[in-house]
Amino acid sequence: MKGPLFYSKILLFGEYGIIKDSKGLSIPYNFYNGALKKSDHPNETALESNKSLKKYVDYLAAINPDLVIFDLETLKADVNDGMYFDSSIPQGYGVGSSGALVAAIYDQYAKNKITVLENLTREKLLELKSIFSEMESFFHGKSSGLDPLNSYLSIPILINSKDNIEATGIPAQQNGKGAVFLIDSGIVGETAPMVSIFMENMKQEGFRNMLKDKFIKHTDACVEDFLSGNIKSLFKNTKQLSKVVLSHFKPMIPKQFHELWKKGIETNEYYLKLCGSGGGGYILGFTEDIEKAKQSLSNYKLEVVYNF
């Protein structure tokens, strides 16, 4: 048995902001993927995955049947038969490892599922998002449902607000010098503790005002610039966003990257931002000159995900 492949994702813009209704833009990242599998000779990783799937099945069995119904009998039988999620998506890296698993389970075992081939109206997208939110909450405590949605549909998703999302097209990649890239921080990040720091900060009026007046303002502008292909303005807004994150989201940035972050803003050679909830995993970078950025960040391996 081998199920279809589900890909990782990158939230280009919107981390934390989408909790408070900023815009967001999430794109599939085909470099990593995962699929449900069975094997006669499972290795250690497969056995671990199977063990956590057993717990997950119990969780899914308790989900409100008004929201989604699974073929639990087949799912249980497959898991007892050794099924596991074979994935190259790094966990705790902000690229949607649990999202791909959720998408794979829904695809294989949900009854009356909404399929990719349907006319995906806003209502259907929101219904999928709320199903996925419930399914993914098992892994993070609270999930927006966006990662699995992106993985399941494998198309860019534009978040206008919590109740307004749409499938979107993004400008075709160019062969220019500009690029979006990932840096591996070498640390596994955990979503739940980062989100609870954010929620704690949200109790302060100053932080809430900063979020609205600066963070969300620049995030929304970045999304609009990116989609309209306004590269000059995009880099201006990404620089502002990078500054705001360095000032107000320090706990989410691994310590050894604070200076590197600042250097990018001061030299304009690159601008860094969080990829997902931060605390480790990948860091997202934007540069107008990828060769310059590679020299400046020569101690790190850069993975280019998009070219301007």
From TrEMBL:
Entry's Gene Ontology molecular function annotations: ATP binding; kinase activity
Keywords tagged on the record: ATP-binding, Kinase, Nucleotide-binding, Transferase
A Pfam family the protein falls into: GHMP_kinases_N
Residue ranges constituting the GHMP kinase N-terminal domain according to the UniProt record: 83-147
KW Iron-sulfur (keyword) present: no
Keyword Nucleotide-binding: yes
InterPro entries in UniProt: GHMP_kinase_C_sf, GHMP_kinase_N_dom, HddA/FKP, Ribosomal_Su5_D2-typ_SF, Ribsml_uS5_D2-typ_fold_subgr
Name listed for the protein in its UniProt record: Mevalonate kinase
